């Protein structure tokens, strides 16, 4: 027997107020904050919204779905040039799904790349990073991109590291062309 429960979802797309607080409402006595007019908060005009409602059994999957929806594809064009990467593939792949990649970028010093991410879970996890190209050298970095430890690639070219519960990790690496 399957039971269905009716539910309502209320979604506020735009909240505009004329005052931070007023004391003349019939459903509340007194102020809920400072009695300050906010004419700039009216936000007149035409607005467009993108939203998605996702029902997931696991909070982890809901977070990943929401993150994917919020992060649009970013594409850049370049002229035709020789390169070592295949026409299809991933720049980097990460497992397990508890590790959320938050940045992939060229290092500030221009000498290689970095991948930054964080552990969504409360427990320690082991992460495997599979770059889409041969890695010459890799290291753990702090948030200022300063060296914080060594991270030797395996014979297969993957990088394996542990991340504390809710911890942030930054990995810096160079491919074999820039080693």
One letter per element, helices H and strands E, the order comes to HEEEEEEEE
How big is the Rg?
24 Å
What share of the residues does DSSP label as strand, in percent? 25-35%
Tell me roughly what share of residues is in helical segments. under 10%
Q: What is the tally of beta strands?
A: 8
Mean pLDDT: 82
Count, helices: 1
What strand line-up does the widest sheet have? 2-3-8-5-6
Low confidence ranges: none
Structural class label: mainly beta
Calculate the terminal CA-CA distance, rounded to whole Å.
62 Å
| Dominant shape | elongated
What summary fits the major beta sheet? 5 strands, antiparallel
Explain what you see.
This protein has one helix at 59-70; strands spanning 92-95, 99-106, 113-119, 125-131, 135-141, 147-150, 159-163, 168-175. It is mainly β. It has a five-stranded antiparallel beta sheet, with no helix packed on it. The protein has a three-stranded antiparallel beta sheet with strand order 1-4-7, with no helix packed on it. The termini are far apart.
Describe this protein with a few key phrases.
mainly beta, five-stranded antiparallel β-sheet, 1 helix, three-stranded antiparallel β-sheet
